Amino acid sequence: MNLIIDVGNSRAKFAVFEKNALLFDSTVAxxxxxxxxxxxxxxxxxINNAIVSSVGSLGEKDFAxxxxxxxxxxxxxxxxxxxxxxxxxxQTLGVDRIALATAAFYENPNANTLVLDAGTCLTYDMINDxxxxxxxxxxxxxxxxxxxxxxxxSKLPLLEPEELLxxxxxxxxxxxxxxxxxxxxxxxxxxxxxxxxxxSDLTVILTGGDSQILSKRLKNTIFAHSKFLLLGLNYLLEYxxx
Length: 242
What we know:
This protein is of the alpha/beta class. It folds into 2 domains: 2-74, Nucleotidyltransferase, domain 5, CATH 3.30.420; 84-233, Nucleotidyltransferase, domain 5, CATH 3.30.420. It contains 7 helices and 11 strands. The strands form 2 sheets. Strands 6-9-8-7-10-11 form a 6-stranded mixed beta sheet. Strand 2 and strand 3 form a beta hairpin. The longest helix has 27 residues, at 172-198. The chain starts with a strand and ends with a helix. The model has no long low-confidence stretch (mean pLDDT 93). It comes from Meishania litoralis.
């Protein structure tokens, strides 16, 4: 069994895989990571390998606890990847983007695949039908756009995303929702159109915490997959065992 740990700035996602089958996944606050690790090994004693993808930071205590139970691979640009990496600065490529590209490589082999991760940032990652990672784009995520409007102005409120009744806002709040939700949706559709003009038979996969609210607003055909990053991390762990 494999244990997957994806560490963000304030929370960590966990997943347990039996080969390529996802058996369990959860999300906990950073301060509860060590306790959750112990609980998982009590529940799944056959875990013998783990991979850590750390956008935030896994504390030394947490890492020490994990290392007691199993072999640990820390994902970095020095890890082995199944795809050809044509990124001009591979040492700066985020580990989350590496995992998403790996999931695309295995889940949609020999095909042009664009992966959109709607998280803190909105990232675009392209794997072509030759199994080559080309790169993509990084853009502000949904909540980052709401925060920017509030934090960089003196009077605009900080809002939570909600469904639009009309694209024409008739109050400050509905105008903010229209600007943010329409803006990010039109951006995504426009970027997908750019990629489709260059790559035939393009498959678009949308994942990340804001994928649900965004998927219903897009005109382009996409496949929503909330566990895509976890799948990619599991594939990378298996690949780096070799």
